[in-house]
């Protein structure tokens, strides 16, 4: 019990602020509602930026997600790809595009 509580506290410190929503669903319903009205930024992203800042966590389509907004934050993440973060796609996207698609490739190209 003590170790579990300690691990939870450590993981919370490493994650940005935000809400994960309901288990498995997360905030997917709110995300899709805003997207269907073509107001994703105004109704989903902007209120969370106002509440949590330019970097916040959420859960979309069953996957924990960190949203990064702003030039400096994007530059930091993109310049440190594969060092601090690894880009990934939802399992539904991988199934749709296939395991051999370019979006599933990571790391440097090694010639044959």
SSE blueprint and pairings:
Layout: H1 2-14, H2 28-36, H3 40-52, E1 55-60, E2 63-68, H4 71-79, H5 91-97
Helix pairs in contact: 2-3
InterPro entries: Cyt_P450_sf (IPR036396)
Family: Belongs to the cytochrome P450 family.
Keywords: Iron, Metal-binding
What does this structure look like?
- By secondary structure, the chain is mainly α.
- The chain folds into 2 domains: 1-68, no CATH class; 70-104, no CATH class.
- The chain contains 5 helices and 2 strands, in the order H-H-H-E-E-H-H.
- Strand 1 (55-60) and strand 2 form a beta hairpin.
Average pLDDT confidence is 77
The helicity comes to 40-55%
In terms of DSSP E residues, the strand content is 5-15%
**Strand order across the biggest sheet?**
1-2
Helix-strand makeup class? mainly alpha
CA distance, first residue to last residue: 50 Å
Q: How many helical stretches?
A: 5
């Amino acid at each position: 019990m003590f170790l579990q509580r300690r691990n939870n506290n450590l993981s919370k410190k490493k994650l940005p602020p935000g809400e994960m929503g309901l288990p498995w669903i997360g905030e997917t319903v709110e995300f899709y509602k805003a997207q269907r009205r073509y107001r994703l930024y105004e109704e989903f992203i902007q209120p969370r930026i106002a509440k949590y800042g330019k970097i916040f966590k959420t859960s979309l389509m069953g996957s924990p997600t960190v949203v990064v907004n702003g030039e400096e934050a994007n530059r930091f993440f993109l310049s440190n790809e594969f060092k601090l973060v690894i880009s990934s796609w939802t399992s539904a996207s991988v199934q749709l595009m296939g395991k051999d698609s370019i979006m599933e490739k990571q790391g440097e190209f090694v010639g044959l």
